[in-house]
Specification:
This protein has 362 residues and is mainly alpha-helical. The protein has one domain (6-361). The protein contains 14 helices and 2 strands. Strands 1-2 form a two-stranded parallel ribbon. α1 (6-28) packs across α11 (281-288) and α7 packs antiparallel against α8 (188-213).
Length: 362
């Protein structure tokens, strides 16, 4: 936690806490007629903190995941698959029954058995099933990115300097074209595809930034391409959305939220990996348990909302802090009881027997 990537764990913590802020504030602010600190919901909605946190997670994945597949290393693909499965699935599988108990049962709704079983695949929505938690959609993107990285690695392309640059430029360019087309043709489904491009684009941009920091773009043409990618995210996307808002007559909040969340997330990511590196141990520790924090905070949030329903007065800041604290506690339990043993088992299963036999003699 105090090593080279403590600032990455801290960035994960910030991402998870932004998601919790959004979810808590928007639910607590409507609980009573008398509300204190209702500004928290207004700020979270204006900046779309929930999506901003998710996109920050995506950028961090791009920054970290491709380097888990080392070029030329025998068995790297097998190791990657085993370790990713044991890293993600144990805590995720536990979250499903707890979501049914702590969310669906709390609000008095049944959860279909077919949907429950399909949720265990981590791609329930792709298979036409209802997700046990709405936030599961992000995990499908993560899996897609892992599969893409594995395919690129098998093809010998993952660690070539231009690969992620081309993908990042293609993602932001295609997203821009689809956003324009969605307005011109009045087809919202094109906007949804554009958002998917931006989600993957955040991962590609994170990978590009990691390579840039490691000196992996020695050619001027590569640095220009990287600058164009950043310009697309931080300049073209906000200006394009502003133009749609101002001149098309379609005053849709979507064109405010996209630059706020996607552009804001990438800017935050760049700052948190350069001039604002945060290595504060408590925050880095929250980042260590951030996967479980992200998965399990609704299990805490929904019962709290049900207990307070009908209250005469609520303090959004106090309740958000309370929910975050309880969620961090639950996340820590899951991390130490489920996540960390799963990671250890994945490492053991993916380590060649010959290395295991040599280890005691070292």
């Amino acid at each position: 936690m105090g090593g080279r990537y403590a600032h990455i764990d801290a960035a994960r913590a910030i991402a998870a806490l932004l998601v919790i802020w959004q979810h808590c504030a928007e639910m607590f602010v409507v609980l009573a007629l008398s509300v204190r600190h209702g500004w928290m919901a207004e700020v979270a909605n204006a900046a779309d903190f929930g999506r901003l946190g998710v996109v920050l997670f995506f950028a961090i994945s791009g920054y970290v995941i491709p380097w888990s597949l080392r070029e030329g290393e025998a068995g790297a693909g097998r190791t990657f698959v085993i370790r990713r499965v044991f890293r993600l699935f144990p805590a995720y599988w536990l979250s499903i029954p707890l979501a049914v108990i702590g969310v669906w049962n709390v609000v008095g709704q049944a959860f279909p058995l077919r949907d429950l079983l399909l949720n265990f695949t981590m791609i329930a929505e792709v298979l036409g099933a209802r997700p046990a938690l709405g936030l599961y959609w992000t995990l499908a993107y993560e899996l897609g990115f892992y599969v893409l990285c594995l395919g690129l690695w098998r093809g010998g392309l993952l660690h070539r300097p231009w690969t992620m640059l081309i993908l990042a430029l293609g993602a932001i360019g295609l997203a821009g074209a689809l956003l324009v087309a969605s307005v011109g043709l009045r087809k919202s489904e094109l906007g949804a595809i554009a958002v998917s491009c931006l989600n993957y684009g955040a991962m590609f941009a994170g990978a590009c930034w990691r390579r840039w920091q490691d000196g992996g773009y020695p050619r001027p043409s590569q640095r220009v391409a990287g600058a164009l990618c950043l310009g697309g995210w931080l300049i073209a996307l906000p200006l394009g959305c502003a133009a749609v808002w101002l001149f098309s007559g379609r005053h849709n909040d979507f064109f405010v939220r996209v630059p706020a969340s996607y552009g804001g997330a990438l800017l935050a990511f760049l700052l948190l990996t350069t001039v604002w590196k945060i290595s504060w141990r408590p925050l880095a520790w929250v980042g260590l348990v951030s996967y479980s924090l992200y998965l399990f905070h609704p299990v805490v949030l929904y019962p709290v909302v049900q207990v307070l329903r009908g209250a005469a007065h609520v303090d959004v800041a106090l309740l958000t802090a309370l929910t975050a604290g309880l969620s961090i506690g639950l996340a820590a339990i899951v991390y130490y009881a489920v996540e960390r043993p799963g990671v250890a088992l994945g490492r053991k299963l993916s380590t060649p027997r010959s290395r295991l036999e040599l280890k005691p003699a070292q």
